Amino acid sequence: MRMLNILVVAFSVIFMVASLPAYSQQSRGSESIQAQEIFNAHGNQVAGNPHGSVTLVEFFGYNCPYCRVMYPVIEKLVKRDPYLRVVYKEYLLFGQRSVLPGTAALAANMQNKYLAMHQAMMTATSPLIPEEVMFLAKKAKLNIKQFKQDMQNPKLLARLERTTKLAHAMGIRGAPTLIIAPTKVLKNPKVKVYPYVGLPEAARIQALINKAHKAA
Q: The whole model's pTM is what?
């Protein structure tokens, strides 16, 4: 079984990742399940071409300064590549501090406003405290009454916890972490995947996207 070993570098902070197993070491069936967990999207958490031949998955946190630097890089990659599909996976990078913005994004997703809220929080200039999150929800033109109700839905926290468990099982300890692969990985988990963690350098990320395109 393939194990992806990577050195995680987040600017001046260096994390050692023992291994980044793309899939389970059990049966082919469990491989397919984990491929679905990694590369599939929930609702409207997709940027770019939803039917793109290459998928870029980003594990990130809204309170992560490096993730904010990565945000415009991914935006530019999407604009340049009409066949790129981006799936966002927010997780509890900073524990309890990540719950509020993560839940807010998933609540916005329930109104099909995920990308609008994602952009609002990624470009916010103030800390993501409750008052700021509510202001950004209004800015994203959410139905505030529904938004407040959905924020209390325990299923949203459960999804954040599930994504966090997935990230930890893969050996992810830093953010942003990107996993790039031909979208056909959803049907064939044996295809090669390309992990990327480090400085948000568009050229390096594009090189991996190009490799995935060739394998698509």
A: 0.86
Angle between helices 99-109 and 130-139 (to 10 degrees): 20
CATH, residue 168? 3.40.30.10
Residue 1 lies in a domain: no
Tell me how many domains the chain contains: 1
Question: Which residues span the domain enclosing 204?
Answer: 7-215
Report residue 6 CA to chain centroid gap: 18
Closest CA to 62 of 15, 109, 128, 126: 128
Each residue of 105-122: pLDDT tens digit? 999 999 999 999 999 999
Peptide bond into 176 cis (omega under 30): yes
Q: Is residue 166 part of a domain?
A: yes
**Structure tokens that stand for 84 in this block:** 């790129």
> Cα(54)–Cα(181) distance, rounded to whole angstroms?
6
